[in-house]
Amino acid sequence: MKKRIGIIGGGQLGLMIAQAAHRLDAFVTALDPSPDAPAFAEADARIVGAFDDLAALERLCEASDVVTYEFENVPGDILRHLEGKYNIKQGIAPLFDSQDRLREKDNARMHGLEPPRYRAVPAIDDVPLDAEACAALSPQSRLLHLGMSVGKIGMPCVLKTRTLGYDGHGQAIIRDMEDMEKAADLLSVPCILEEMVDFDFECSVIMVSDGKDIIHFPVSRNIHRDGILDLCIVPASGLQNGGGENDLCRRITASCESFMKSCSYRGILAIELFVKGDRFYFNEMAPRPHNSGHWTIEGCTTSQYMELCHFLLGLPLKRPELISPAVMKNILGQDLDAAKTVVAESLVGAGPGIEVSASEDVDNAFCGEAGKGVYVHLYGKTQSRPKRKMGHITFVPMTPERYYSGWAARFV
Questions:
Q1: Is 230 helix (H, G, I), strand (E, B) or coil?
Q2: Which domains does the chain have, with CATH numbers?
Q3: Among 94, 297, 370, 410, which lies 20 to 30 A Cα-Cα from 73?
């Protein structure tokens, strides 16, 4: 009898989890509030329901042998109720710890990772104000609270809402008084003020633990555009020496694995870090497959999705090896037409049954090889808009130099 995996969330991460689960002959049920969620195209069963709909979540759990999540913002109190009754194998601790940036930073520091300097704001005598107290603050009080914290952290710095922010949303960079006056509006909810690290580059460490062993994928170097991940480059320059990991890279992965063990986390965990010289700083974590790990599908001997499914199904973890240098390009709404053109060019004249003459003929849900070593994943989202993640392309083999000279101009 097939084992049954339930996925809370039906976005692109759920889609790719379901694809990996099917390769392991598992039955997949996904839950999402949107009836056209990308994962529904791959799932064997669907439940349309809100993430705070306890009845819908219980239907998912009852239909599954093991449950995972691909979305951070499921209410923690609901998951706590579910964890006691159903097999949420990864547990809710990493999810709970990642849902509040202040709690996340405190937890990182407590378990051996160094974040940039930070402060809760607004606060009185270093005690953070709750949501109700923040909402009651006048504009003048918000600016006063922010000014006192900026005075202790220094400029430049970054103000972020403690919950729900992503891809540059819910945050503001403060470089001068004018920025501070604009940013103070964020203090209608609890926030965190962080030192802005003048880092050399950002990297990601993606790990999977079964409680005994931890595997990690090759570390990627991440390049952002407008606060959103644009490119992942592997191997990561600055972390390599003679084709292998250098001392800095080994310290980074060892520290991240130690953190995961110290927190007793199981399942999948991605950690983003800022690297400056020979030091590295914790930025944030995600207890789910990560955007910076999409490239592992074609660039590694096993993917982040496959190893998460190995964990969920009680199968041995496989240690990933890099197949060859890779570059992953995130496809946002403004990049979608260019990505479809790449697909169309590869399919024109491909043979009987292939009727593609222009990018308009390419389906939003395309997944396949568009030319040798060019792997296109379009997630099937029905609405495209600028800065929305619509897909990704992984180039294998590919170096940064070849990408910038031959491909980058197509995505501007």
A1: strand
A2: 4-88 (3.40.50.20), 117-195 (3.30.1490.20), 198-323 (3.30.470.20), 324-412 (no CATH)
A3: 297
